[in-house]
Amino acid sequence: MTTTNKTTAMPATPPHRGGGWEGVFFSLEEFTYSATAQARYIENVPSAEAVRNLELLTENVLDPIREAWDGPIIVNSGYRCPELNKAVGGAQYSYHMKGMAADIRPKNGLVYKLYELIVYLFSTGQLGITECYIDRKRGYIHIAYDIEGFNTWPFIDPL
Ligand SMILES: [Zn+2]
Fold first, then answer.
1. How confident is the model at residue 15 (pLDDT cuts 50, 70, 90)?
2. 137 CA distance to ligand 1 centroid (A)?
3. Where are the domains of the chain?
4. What is each CA distance from 92 to 81, 125, 135, 155, 158, in whole angstroms?
């Protein structure tokens, strides 16, 4: 008798290789730095869990995007402690507070081109994305990666 042992398609949390930050193109500091936090004396320090989430966001989403983009990408905002999230007017249950989101923009200013690339990588199954949209007013792309929600981005082309 042959048995097939098919597992469900839900991705497991990738094994942690251990020994510090695993991001290639982005450093942890890029996700915790905030001019607003500095100006208001807010200590924007992520918990170990939030750091782990930032790492997953970097490894699984931001590093692959950066590699495909092949040019500098700036992190406008990454982790936000609740106080900072409030100070910048973030959503009440923002993924930023869990270390699962970043607002990014390409250094060359071609935000729509970068968004197109993200859509391409997502639609060809190269990335899991939970939230992604262009903030036109501020000129960046908000992108979130929740291992539980993974591929739930209800992609609607806003262009
Ligand atoms: Zn955001």
1. very low
2. 13
3. 28-144
4. 12, 30, 17, 22, 24
